[in-house]
């Protein structure tokens, strides 16, 4: 559905993306994760023909992307990270505009308005940030496109609407849509995505299925008082400035327990590392292979 | 035309520009109406000026300068040509330049281009719709100016050849469209997010060029009139002294306008967002 290989984009001397190779398969929800300024939006904008790539290949629906690719847009629903629509228009007028441009089922449109709890009588400029995001979601989903490209869709939404939105995505996936979801909210990535890619400094660090990521999960060990001399295969000390000693562990839990039992601690905690912590480790590492 | 234009975009551009159009149109139109309405009161003053000039030495350079800028009006239409039309063309030119400039620039400033460019509408359709919106806005604007001016002539009960007057209106509409195309091209060439005040500067050099070419006998400076769209719609020449229509200047600017539209289209088609 989406194919990109060695995609590169520079803004003058500033790197947008350095090397992005990533395929999104038909019918999957693909999570796209990375810290701010890592190149997520640049990649998305290249796919949508909003900016030119400097190098590499990018295809959507097996067609090369290019500036002004209106013929591809018929089957794409896009939600930018910030929603900007004609500010002086009422939401109902904006909806009419999109209805005149796209092929929209009225029943589904009304359902979206209801599920997202949208007030169509207000002017767009008078809406709060969260309500503007809802209009963005509405416009991306209203024509039930084959491909949804969503850039930070849930930031600013209340938890109730976030959950409803994720349900809408799952529903669209079940209908056969492919979804590229760029997000900082790892809990939603975990909930809905089939695969996930991590981008940092314009380079894709990895692309994995959620199962593979869960296999990567390891334990976090916190010992009091702090000490950095514990040594066991799979056990890694995490430097920190606190009084507690932090370690990560990947391996047989019984071996760990046997090893730790030979030491004396005031306190010892062993717990699972969350997905957020896994990504944080990647975010913070200088070189990740 | 249908496949080259998007009616939803045209409709939205007309709605977006309607309020601004009405403010400019009514403000300027009422000013023109007022200028015409006071003609009966300044008529005597004009007659006194004519008497004063007749008493002056014919070789006085002041008389020549005055004549170069239209002289003393002898009728309501001549008064309009020397007083009202000056304001109409300058203010109208500013409005046209801002309108043309903002047709592309506004989407970039308000960041609505990101949504616009991801719709299943080609850049050409979008561009043609915007150009048509400019033409319709300027037609409404010019119609209101000449409608209210005609009303002014009716109020003061002055005989005016309406066909000549409205033909002058048509020339002004064409001239405004040309100036708007300069604004459109400027916004297509410049980087996004430039101030729309830049467009205000477009009509002034043209207007000054026309003024200079009118006021001089120097053949080189006189030839400058061909590089200003104000020349073929010059009010004193058209409504008062009945100079021949400046076909050469008109054709030059038709060609320039076509070129500007072509450049704007090419640039717009490859425009990226920032």
How would you briefly describe this protein structure?
The complex is a heterodimer of chains A (289) and B (274). Chain A is α/β, with parallel strands linked by helices and 289 residues long. In chain A, 33% of the residues lie in helices and 28% in strands.
Structure notes:
The complex is a heterodimer of chains A (289) and B (274). Chain A has helices spanning 40-47, 70-73, 91-101, 106-115, 129-141, 159-174, 186-192, 210-216, 253-260, 275-284, and strands spanning 2-11, 14-24, 29-33, 55-60, 63-64, 76-79, 147-151, 178-182, 195-200, 203-209, 219-224, 235-238, 245-249, 267-272. With 289 residues, chain A is an alpha/beta fold. The longest helix of chain A has 16 residues, at 159-174. Chain A starts with a strand and ends in a 5-residue tail after the last helix. Chain A is elongated and about 75 Å long. Chain B has helices spanning 7-37, 39-54, 61-68, 76-109, 113-116, 123-155, 162-189, 203-215, 219-223, 235-240, 247-269. Chain B is elongated. Classes of the chains: A alpha/beta (289), B mainly alpha (274). The interface between A and B is medium-sized, with 28 and 26 residues.
């Amino acid at each position: 559905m989406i194919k990109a290989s060695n995609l590169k984009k520079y803004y003058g001397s500033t790197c947008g993306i350095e090397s992005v190779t990533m395929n999104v398969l038909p019918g999957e929800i693909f999570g796209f994760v990375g810290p701010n300024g890592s190149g997520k939006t640049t990649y998305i904008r290249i796919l949508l023909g909003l900016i030119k790539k400097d190098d590499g290949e990018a295809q959507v629906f097996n067609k090369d992307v290019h500036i002004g690719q209106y013929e591809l847009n018929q089957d794409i629903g896009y939600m930018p990270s910030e929603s900007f629509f004609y500010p002086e228009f009422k939401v109902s007028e904006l909806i009419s505009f999109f209805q005149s441009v796209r092929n929209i089922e009225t029943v589904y449109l009304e359902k979206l308005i209801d599920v997202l709890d949208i007030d169509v009588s207000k002017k767009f400029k008078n809406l709060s940030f969260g309500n503007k995001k809802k209009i963005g979601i509405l416009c991306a989903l209203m024509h039930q496109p084959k491909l949804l490209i969503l850039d930070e869709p849930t930031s600013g939404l209340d938890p109730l609407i976030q959950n409803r939105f994720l349900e809408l995505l799952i529903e669209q996936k079940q209908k056969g849509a492919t979804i590229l979801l760029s997000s900082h909210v790892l809990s939603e990535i975990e909930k809905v995505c089939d695969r996930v890619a991590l981008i940092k400094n314009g380079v894709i660090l990895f692309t994995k299925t959620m199962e593979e990521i869960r296999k990567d999960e390891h334990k976090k060990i916190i010992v009091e008082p702090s000490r950095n001399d514990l040594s066991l295969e799979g056990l890694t000390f995490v430097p920190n400035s606190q009084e507690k000693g932090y370690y990560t562990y990947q391996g047989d839990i019984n071996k760990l327990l046997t090893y730790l039992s030979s030491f004396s601690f005031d306190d010892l905690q062993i717990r699972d590392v969350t997905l957020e912590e896994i990504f944080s480790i990647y975010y913070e590492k200088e070189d990740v292979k | 035309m249908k496949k080259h234009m998007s009616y939803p975009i045209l409709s939205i551009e007309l709605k977006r520009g309607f309020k601004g159009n009405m403010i400019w149109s009514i403000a300027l139109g009422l000013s023109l109406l007022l200028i015409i309405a006071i003609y009966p009161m300044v008529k005597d003053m004009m007659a006194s000026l004519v008497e004063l000039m007749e008493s002056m030495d014919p070789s006085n350079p002041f008389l020549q300068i005055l004549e170069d800028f239209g002289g003393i009006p002898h009728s309501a239409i001549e008064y309009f040509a020397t007083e009202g039309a000056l304001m109409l063309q300058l203010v109208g030119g500013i409005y046209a330049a801002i309108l043309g400039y903002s047709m592309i620039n506004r989407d970039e400033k308000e960041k609505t281009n990101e949504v616009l460019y991801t719709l299943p509408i080609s850049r050409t359709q979008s561009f043609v719709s915007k150009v048509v919106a400019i033409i319709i806005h300027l037609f409404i604007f010019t119609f209101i100016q000449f409608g209210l001016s005609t009303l002014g002539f009716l109020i003061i009960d002055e005989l005016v050849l309406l066909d000549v007057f409205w033909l002058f209106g048509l020339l002004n509409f064409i001239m405004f469209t040309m100036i708007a195309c300069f604004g459109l091209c400027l916004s297509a060439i410049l980087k996004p997010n430039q101030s729309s005040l830049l467009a205000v500067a477009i009509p002034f050099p043209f207007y000054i060029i026309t003024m200079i070419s009118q006021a001089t006998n120097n053949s080189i400076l006189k030839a400058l009139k061909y590089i200003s769209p104000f020349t073929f719609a010059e009010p004193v020449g058209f409504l008062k002294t009945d100079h021949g229509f400046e076909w050469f200047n008109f054709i030059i600017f038709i060609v320039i306008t076509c070129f500007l539209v072509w450049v704007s289209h090419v640039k717009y088609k490859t425009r990226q967002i920032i």
